[in-house]
Amino acid sequence: MLNPDGEAGSSKDISPMVPTDTLAETLSPELATVLPTVLPSTAPIESSLRKWSGWVGPVISLAILAAVLWQLRKIDWSQVWSIVPTSPLIWLVLAASYFAGPVADWVIFRKLWGIPVSGIFPLLKKLIGNELLLGYVGEVYFYDWARRHVKMEGSPFGAVKDVAILSALAGNIMTVLLLIFTWPIISKLGLDGAGTTDGHVLATSIGVVLVTSLVIMFFRNGLLSLPKADLGFVFVVHTLRIVANTGLSALAWHLILPGVGIGSWLLFATVRLLLSRLPLIPNKDIAFAGISTLLVGSQVQTSDMIAMISLLIVATHVVLFIGLMLLDLVQKEKNA
Question: Which of 77, 252, 280, 314 has the CB geometry, 3.0–4.6 Å to 205, for a possible disulfide?
Fold first, then answer.
């Protein structure tokens, strides 16, 4: 139901701020004197977020609401109603796919901070914000919510940052692994912008993924602030989330179009996840069409099915966010 890797939004570069004092300790004295002028500290960012903390949540909520209203204008509800699945099993799988990301985040922050069950609601807003607005807007919203509702020592900024970085790292590692296993198929698609098969664009995309992953690993002591045990837990949960979303997507497609075996759909979902993570590959829609023809045959209307699911996702975002806003209003009335 989400992006193929289960993240909010498409593949994005993460540029977290590096604590220069921590990183400088591991480098030579010469570099240590230069780093403070090159790598900005996270302190100004966190201080700025605290300064505007009273406005962050409401402003982001209003921005999401505006995006929701805009999506309402674009949705053809009669078309949505006409394509609604009738099988309860399909609905169950689609719902599991949609909620996999927020539930994974809840499991992570439940361990890190002990957030209550109701913490799933701001995590859903985080998902919708990332999907309907800009990537990582949801993280800013959730950081603001955590500062006001979660009791902990210190600031939640470091944990939110680490979880986002490890999400990208898990996606990158899975991308490389999937590329190894699916290379016989990828090599037949001709993914360069001009339709050639020399592989320059593909190689560059893979290089970007590898370099960003290596940077995270090499500078992990400066980039990441959580204890090693927590970092390992977060990474494992993100990896399981990606695997679960890939499997659930394949199962949903198989249930909607049962004429194609689930094995073919699983391979299709895997290659789709892979292409979505490679940043420089152009014409991804054309590549997806080529994959569907190669794997499931030209007679299967995969484009119609994926368009239908995408429309349902947008409708779910709209309905769910309106429901969350109404819930907030009810709770404020009770607390008044």
Answer: 280
